[in-house]
Amino acid sequence: MKPMERRKVSALSSYKDKLEKVRTFGLESKLSETEISSVMEQCMQSLIVKNCSKPKGKSSFAQIYACAIKTILFLKKVLFYVSSILVVILIMYVVLQHKPTQYFIQSKLQDFIYPGMKVLRKISLPIISLFPSLTGFYDESCLVVNPFFRVPDMPCPCEDVRVILNLTGEDIKREQYHSGIPFMIKVKRAEISLQELKALYGNHSSVFDRDASYLTISSPTNQNLKSTPAYLFESEWYSKEQSWNSTHVLWRCNRMEPTRLLRSCFGVPEKEPIYAAGVTIEKVVLMDGPRAPPYHLPTTEGTTVFIQQSMGSRMIVLNPANECKEKCSSVSVELPPKHILWFSWWYWRASSLPSPAASSVSVSYVGSYL
Q1: Nearest 10 degrees: CA dihedral of 36, 42, 48, 49?
Q2: Fewest Cβ atoms closer than 10 Å to its Cβ: which of 244, 278, 291, 334?
Q3: Parallel, antiparallel, or unpaired for β 165-166 and 283-288?
Q4: Which residues cross the membrane (predicted)?
C-alpha cells in the first residue's frame, strides 16, 4: 500500500474510533440512538457551513489578471463595433458621393430588386401568420409622421385671408379661389345621425369588422382608448346621452369596401376646387359630444381636405402651417350641418373645437384629394 493511501486509511480509522467514543459516551449519558444521531448531524452541518463560509483565497495577481482579461475582451468588442460602423459609413459615403460607383451599383442592383422583394415576402409570411394584425400597416400611406418636415422658401398665398368665405352658389372653380383660400359651401345632403351610422354598421358589420375594425374613443376618463365599432354601437354606453357629452370618437377607414359604404351614406362632394386632383381612399368619421374637447384633425393622405358636417356643429380653426406662420393669420368658422369646408393642407392645419351653441352630437365626415 502506498504511503498516501496508508495515511488516508489511518485517518479514517481514527475518525471512526472517535465517533464510536462519542456514541458510547452518549449511551452512558442515557441518550437514545435518535438523540445521539441528531446531535452528530447538527455538528456535521455546522462544520459544513463554517467551511463553506470561508473565503476562497485568491492571490492579488490572479485577480488583476482576470480583470485585465475581461477588460481586453470588452475593448475588443467595442473596437469591432466601432470599426464596423466606420466601414458602413465609409461605404455609404462612397456610394452617395462617388457618381461612377453609384451608377455601377444602381445598374447592377436593378435585376435583383424584384427577386429580392419576392424572397423578403416569403420570409415575412411566417411572421404575418403569427401576427396577422401587421397586415393593417400595408394600407397605411404613412407609418410615422415627420414632425420636422419643412418646405424651404414656400410661397404663402394665404397671407390676405382674414375670414373663411361662404361660397354657396358661387363657381368655386374660378381661378381667384386658389389653394390658399379656405371656403365653405352648403350642400344638398340629408343629415347623418348616430342612429344611421349604427344602422350602416349593423347591415355591413362583417365588412367593417374585417377592414375597419378599430376606432379611438376619448373621454374625460379615458384618452385615446382603442376600441371597436361593435363596442361603440352595440353596448349600453352608446345609448346613454350623458356618455356622449364630452366624448370624441375617431373612426378611420382606409380600405376600399368600408369607404365605399361610407360614401354611399355621406355622398360625394358635387363640386371640388380647381386645384383638387384625384380623390383618396381614406375617409374619417368624427363623432363629438356637445362639450367634446378641442383636438387636431388627423393628417390626411391628400393635401386638399374637405370636412363635411353631417349633423350638429363644430368650431373649426385653421392655423397657418409652420412655413406660413409669419405671413398668415389663424381663421375660424362655425361649421353648421349640411356644409363642407375646403382647405389646403399645405397652408393650413385644422383643429376642431366645441361650438358654444351645440346641444347635440356632432358627426363630421373628412376626406381629401391629391
Answers
A1: -170
A2: 278
A3: unpaired
A4: 78-96
- Give the Cα-Cα-Cα angle 9, 13, 16 (nearest 5 degrees): 140
CA dihedral 43, 44, 49, 53 (to 10 degrees): 100
Question: Cα 162–174–165 angle (5° rounding)?
Answer: 25
For range 218-230, the mean pLDDT: 88
Using CA atoms, how far apart are residues 313 and 28, in angstroms rounded to an integer? Answer: 104
10-14 mean pLDDT: 70
Q: List, for residues 107-140, the tens digit of each pLDDT value.
A: 777 777 778 888 888 887 888 778 777 777 766 6
d(CA 76, CA 74): 5
Torsion of CA 134, 251, 317, 178, to 10 degrees: 80
Q: Are strands 165-166 and 183-186 parallel, antiparallel or unpaired?
A: parallel
Cβ count within 10 A of residue 129: 8
Q: How far is CA 298 from CA 192, 349, 351, in A?
A: 21, 9, 9
